[in-house]
Design a protein that fits this description.
The chain is α+β, with helices and mostly antiparallel strands and 314 residues long. It is 24% helix and 34% strand. The longest helix is centred in the C-terminal third of the chain and has 13 residues. It is globular. The mean pLDDT is 85.
Length: 314
């Protein structure tokens, strides 16, 4: 892919209205928006065809935005490979609806793809900039009322109970219901080392440290039925006076409203290099907002540095 395809996406690519909707607000502030429902499978096929998209996943408290092509979408029970520079999604299609959003401003007309939860609130939004991707969007809009003729081919699914401590088992349990069931049982039935609470107020210092030391990091942001993951180096981390933490990670940006983080847990589960720590952020309903860890194949030195950092957290 030509990296110049993504030039048109700047830091302000997500409009205030879109971020408001992601954080549980309403799109009623945008009367020029027209919604066309399409098949979820068709939406995913379209995403796979985009040369470079700008994808946003979020809920109340946390938003992750990234530009790039889409990696193959995975579902619970499948492998979850992370490809640097690619938008990586794991989702439950049966819990989602898909729409093409059309916004007109004079002669200009922009199309976007939106995945929404069963109650209608948006959880994942996709924008494009190139002429080719705009044509793909138009094709998706015309597909309204059509469904996929064949089911998506997938790898054999192997479901791993979260109680046994595998990283994918934890991620899929969170994706299932936001992690509420797992959170209730976690202190009692988890087979790994006992989880412990950490002080969420140290998050800005944590990201500043990771940025300064050059330690790579994997971040997963959860919304209902969707998880978006990114891995890479933190190149900027700042927190404003209102408690909004902004992090630049690889080709992605992460925004966290610290006041809406109700608690943070440090949980260790089995990964490729053995037990691996994850910092889990929860809202006031005990649903997971985000998950910071080391996913996939990392060097032993990186794994060791991350574990030492995790162990030092108050």
């Amino acid at each position: 892919m030509d990296p110049d395809k993504c030039e048109d996406f700047g830091e302000e690519a997500a409009s205030q209205c879109e971020c408001c909707a992601m954080r549980g607000g309403s799109r009623s502030c945008d009367p020029q928006l027209v919604t066309t429902e399409i098949d979820v499978g068709m939406a995913l096929v379209g995403c796979a065809a985009f040369e470079c998209a700008f994808a946003i996943t979020g809920s109340v408290g946390v938003v992750l935005a990234q530009s790039g092509p889409y990696a193959p979408v995975s579902e619970p029970g499948e492998a979850f490979p992370l490809a640097p520079g690619q938008i990586t999604l794991r989702l439950q299609p049966e819990n989602l609806h898909a729409n093409v959003l059309a916004r007109s401003d004079g002669e200009d007309r922009e199309l976007m793809v939106e995945l929404s939860a069963c109650d209608g609130h948006p959880v994942h939004l996709v924008r494009v900039a190139s002429e080719f991707d705009a044509l793909v969007m138009e094709g998706l809009e015309r597909s309204a009322g059509e469904g996929l003729t064949q089911e998506r081919q997938s790898l054999p699914q192997v479901f791993i109970p979260w109680e046994e401590g595998d990283q994918l088992g934890q991620i899929d349990a969170i994706l299932d219901d936001g992690g509420e069931t797992r959170r209730e049982l976690l202190p009692h039935y988890y087979a790994g080392p006992r989880p412990r609470w950490i002080n969420q107020r140290i998050l800005p210092a944590l990201f500043e440290h990771v940025c300064t030391t050059g330690l790579p990091l994997s971040v997963i942001v959860f919304a209902e039925g969707v998880a978006q993951a990114v891995t890479g180096f933190v190149h900027v981390a700042s927190t404003d006076a209102n408690g909004r933490m902004s992090v630049g990670l690889g080709s992605a940006s992460l925004d966290v409203e610290l006041a809406l983080v109700h608690e943070a847990l440090l949980v260790r589960s089995h990964g490729p290099l053995g037990l691996t720590s994850a910092i889990e952020l929860y809202d006031d309903r005990r649903r997971v907002l985000a998950f910071f860890t080391q996913l996939g194949s990392v060097s032993p030195d990186v794994h060791r540095a991350w574990e030492l950092l995790a162990e030092s957290l108050p």
